Each structure stands twice: as structure tokens, then as C-alpha cells.
Amino acid sequence: MTGDPWLLIDPLSVQAGDLVDLDDGESRHAAGPLRLAVGDPVVLVDGVGGVADGVMRTVSGRRCQVEIRATRRVPKPAAGKVDVALAVLHSQAMDWAVQKSVEVGVETFLPLLAQRSQLGSRAARGRLGHWRRVARQALKQCRRPWGLEVSEPVTIGDLVCESGTRRVVVGDHDGPHLGDLDDAVPDLLVVGPEGGFTGDETAEMAAAGWGQLRLGRHILRAETAAVVGAAMLVAAHDDGYAVR
Length: 244
Prior knowledge:
Elements (H helix, E strand, L loop, with lengths): L5 E3 L10 E3 L2 H8 L9 E5 L4 E9 L6 E9 L9 E5 L3 H14 L3 E5 L8 H22 L6 E2 L5 H8 L4 E4 L16 E4 L7 H9 L3 E3 L8 H17 L6
Parallel strand pairs: 1-3, 6-7, 6-10, 7-8, 9-10, 9-11
Antiparallel strand pairs: 2-5, 3-4, 4-5
Helix pairs in contact: 2-3, 2-6
């Protein structure tokens, strides 16, 4: 990792000369793993486009304070929006998928309640706050000014109703490659659980007009498929890629 370390702050208005107190978690991170000292430069980010350059003025595991040197607003990307709906997996796999979705540039991550999901609706909703914290923490490593939104868990029926005219593809090893699609680059990727979608779910998605997308030559784990597919679509949007 290069450059000044990034730390998280709550969305707020700051200006040059202000002193900002980090919360307990960020103070422990700054004083502990980052080993920051008084006078070290840092970057503060709020996850909604606010970025501030600062310098450490107080450093302890209990309380860290940063003096703001300069602030800027980073516009939200206007194009290239890619969302991912991933059937809910066990804790570590889902955490990894959320974290890596932040890194590759996904805008919204939708926990999907499929029939073969590894958590039910109640348990998935109980993990929602945790996934949102994982997503927020990931901003620091990848230097991302705008956070990943982790939505409330949704069903396939919810997605069908809400997708409208969106270009939706389902990750499937038997599907076409990205370059063989006959429409614009998809902006919503749907990935099923380890056991795959049921026949009824597959029929519902096909009836909605959703296509399929091959994500590589090998069979991927669900969390890997979500991240690989997201990276493909984000890169295609960023490069102005046009499918035929």
C-alpha cells in the first residue's frame, strides 16, 4: 500500500483548520496496526464523496484527533453503475464477497434470498448491519470516496419487479461470453448459491428476459463468481466496451 493512510469519519462538514475526533474503532486502528504518530499525514473519507487531507495531532488507542489541512468533494460516478445480487452465503464467504465488491467498484450489493441460500430471511437481515460495516471498512484499503450500498435482502421476485428495463444477466457456466451478448453491457449480475438455483427460480428469471453470462473456463464458487463477474462488467463499462 502506498500513499497516506485513509481513515473513516462520519459524514460531516469540515474545513481547513478544524480538529476532528476519530471514533473508537478508527482511533484503535490508527494507533495500533497503522502505528501513526503525531504529525503523520492522513486522509479522511466519509463514504459519500467527502475527502479531507489532515495531520495527526493526538494519537492514542482511546482517542485520536486530526487537524484538517484541505477538503474536497469527489463527484459520484455518473456512468458505469454495476450492481450484484448474490444468494446469501455463510459468514466468511459473504464478508469476502462484500469486501471485494467494494474493491472492484460495485455500486449496490443485494443479498439474495434464494431457495438454497445458506441463511434464511431472518438470519440474513440480522447480518445486514455487519455486511454494511464490512463494506465501509473496505473503503480505506481501496481508496474509494463513495461507499458500496448493501441493500436489504431481496428475493428473485423482488428483483424481477424492480429491474424494469435494466440489463440483467445470471452467472452461468453454460452462458455466452461477454463479447457474444447481443445487447449493451449488463448492469446487474445475479449469482446463485453453491447448490444453484432451483428449476422454478431459473424459469422465473428466464420469463423475466434475463440472459446468462459465462464467467470463465472453470466452475467458480459463488462468492468468486460474484466478484469476477462484477469486475468484468465494471471494466467493460469503464472502457466503453460495446457488446455486439
